[in-house]
Write a structure and sequence with these properties.
Layout: H1 11-19, E1 42-46, E2 51-55, H2 67-73, E3 76-78, E4 86-89, H3 90-103, H4 107-114
Parallel strand pairs: 1-4
Antiparallel strand pairs: 1-2, 3-4
Bound molecules: zinc ion.
Residues 4-5, 10, 12, 59-61, 64 line the site of zinc ion.
């Protein structure tokens, strides 16, 4: 998922990516918990349909918005503001809100339902 350039890769990020070290110690064979990002470049995105893990290419242009603002601009709500690794789509937040108000669904039960 490319952020900041209408779905196209950020030219500044491409230059940075070629210089960056890529960690190869990801243990793919382990059955991963859905909420744990696969690696530092992966963002866990919680949507109505399921919990996704997507590699994210942030915009790194000079004067670009911070990561959280970039997520907001793409309809995603970050779960934290420090080292964001999980984000919720606005639609899953709306769905949870209705579910919680109308059906008294707890966050824990809603989380289990998504899994
Ligand atoms: Zn950019």
């Amino acid at each position: 998922m490319h952020l900041g350039h209408g779905g196209r890769p950020c030219p500044a990020n491409i230059a940075l990516a070629t210089q960056a070290e890529v960690a190869d110690d990801v243990e793919e064979e382990i059955l991963m918990e859905a909420w744990e990002p696969r690696d530092k470049r992966t963002l866990v995105i919680v949507d109505v349909s399921r919990i996704h893990q997507l590699m994210v290419s942030w915009c790194c242009c000079k004067g670009c918005p911070d990561y959280e603002t970039q997520l907001f601009e793409h309809g995603l709500f970050p779960a934290s503001t420090t080292r964001t690794s999980t984000a919720f789509t606005f639609s899953v937040l709306e769905y949870f809100h209705v579910d919680a108000v109308e059906c008294k669904t707890s966050a824990s039960n809603f989380s289990n339902k998504l899994r």
